[in-house]
Amino acid sequence: MTSKNILVTGGAGYIGSHTVKELLRRGYEPIIIDNLSTGYRKLVVGGEFIQADLRNPDAVRQIFSGHRINAVIHFAASCYVGESVEKPMMYYENNVLCGMNLLAAMLAHDVRCIIFSSSAAVYGNPIHVPIREEHPQNPINPYGQTKSLFEDILRSHERLYGMQFVSLRYFNAAGCDPEAEIGETHEPETHLIPLALDVAVGRTPNLRVFGTDYDTPDGTCIRDFIHVCDLADAHIRTLEYLMDGGASAVFNVGTGTGHSVREIIRAAERVTGRSIPAVNAPRRPGDPPSLVASAEKLKGAIGWTAQHSALDEILSTAWNWHKKLRGCAD
Ligand SMILES: NC(=O)c1ccc[n+]([C@@H]2O[C@H](COP(=O)([O-])OP(=O)(O)OC[C@H]3O[C@@H](n4cnc5c(N)ncnc54)[C@H](O)[C@@H]3O)[C@@H](O)[C@H]2O)c1
């Protein structure tokens, strides 16, 4: 393999660390850049780790000068919707300006392949479900706006400079490494499954269910949960597609199947064998009733489908990691 050196920004985070582990398993040599603002050094299981901040263009350029980088997977970002509403400029800086520092260094060193972590948040409140990539983009918070804006910047870099990109719009990342060596650790945690598992281990007394009167079969929100190992696979396969001359593209990464909050709670109780008391809470502003991907485009382009995203596999891998994270015995 000649194109082995992959720069992974945000590789000490949840999705980045799982992708790094999979890159290593497939014989790539990842170089990880992370400022550890929300990531953890211990999640990086191999490759070269460089603690640096993408806000610093000189540091980014130096990394490209010191390494022969063949392609980039760009995970680094600020990712809390609520925080983005409170601190929009922080989100524009970290999610847009930092990406532009990266693109400038790539162009200066003739690196022209990038896989970008986008999000279902670019669609806003969907008009049609399942959501296809052509669905109008109408993000309803600064987080989604930064992802949509950076996609535009990638398109203009393709037009102006021949940059080749794949933007992967993920739905809800979930699950953990099947070996439980690494996993999901967000502080504060806002994701449904780790919050449910915190109740299962007794760290919190109950799980708040935000909105129980939606127009869905059980009244709770429906989301498309994609196993983090399926996401890692989608990154590496689209990277190979791009490096083999595939055209720039935007793809959803989801399963095409939605699960309600109540279904997740039931699955978590089944897998853990513990009770997870839920309390009803008001709807949160900006939570659409249902967000489910059409995953057909990625399947058509590279034959990718999710292999590990059955609910019980998501829950059991998350549970094995969560017990270790919280220091719990079986
Ligand atoms: N988790 C999800 O469900 C989900 C869904 C859609 C999109 N995404 C996107 O996927 C990507 C990864 O998300 P995650 O859940 O792994 O988040 P995460 O917070 O675990 O990972 C982000 C990583 O980027 C690093 N980072 C942030 N700013 C940086 C900077 N300026 N310089 C260097 N490193 C920096 C952090 O330290 C962290 O390790 C993000 O771009 C996010 O927007 C995540």
Automatic annotation (TrEMBL):
GO MF annotations in UniProt: UDP-glucose 4-epimerase activity
Catalytic activity of the protein: UDP-alpha-D-glucose = UDP-alpha-D-galactose
Subunit structure as annotated in this protein's UniProt entry: Homodimer.
Entry keyword set: Carbohydrate metabolism, Isomerase, NAD
EC class of the enzyme, as a word: isomerase
Start and end residues of each NAD-dependent epimerase/dehydratase domain: 6-254
Source species of the chain: Candidatus Abyssobacteria bacterium SURF_17
Name used for this protein in its record: UDP-glucose 4-epimerase
Pfam families (alphabetical): Epimerase
InterPro entries: Epimerase_deHydtase, NAD(P)-bd_dom_sf, UDP_G4E
